[in-house]
Amino acid sequence: MQNLKLLISREQIANRIVEMSKQITADSLGEPVLFVGVLKGAAVFLTDLIRQVDLDASFDFIGVSSYGNPPGPKQEKVWDSTGEVRLTKDVEQSLRGKNVILVEDILDTGLTLAFLKRLLLGHKPKSLRIAVLLDKSARRKLAVEADYVGFKIPDEFVVGYGLDYAEQYRNLPDIWTLPQISGE
Ligand code: IMP
What we know:
Blueprint: E1 5-8, H1 10-27, E2 33-39, H2 43-50, E3 57-68, E4 81-89, E5 99-107, H3 111-121, E6 127-135, E7 148-152, E8 158-159, E9 175-177, H4 179-182
Bound molecules: inosinic acid.
Inosinic acid is lined by residues 41, 66, 79, 81, 104-113, 157-159, 163.
């Protein structure tokens, strides 16, 4: 694949998801769990995760859009959020009294998850946990942390396994960095 550099292989992802699923299963103490995936990036991760947990599990999706800075002359930091996050699709079932795990592909500045956490807590779930596949903690702007983290990664733009650049690359089975976007 031209210009892409392999960061995390499909085998590493699969192994880590098994570990995360065991932790989620143990922490859930046999209670049912509703997984809420953030469209579209988390769709691939969510479907792999829920097939590994040993729980009475159901799932739903929520949609948000955040506004990125327009690409500059050197396409620098085009994925920076301006801080505006907006709901594009709400969950379809009630969260009240349920054990909810919000599932996101990547925790970056934290704006999206801070917005969603506040929104979902308003639904009065019994508990709310956050699971992310990737954590780019160097870029955090808001103090939001995940309960389950697949991989901590450096400040580089990544694609594959659900993650996109302009809707491209979501179907790649591994996770790659896009060096020209990452500013290398
Ligand atoms: P945050 O609101 O800044 O934490 O960003 C979260 C969202 O930004 C993620 O759900 C992704 O859609 C997007 N994002 C952040 N970093 C990357 C990346 O490296 N590749 C692809 N999408 C990213």
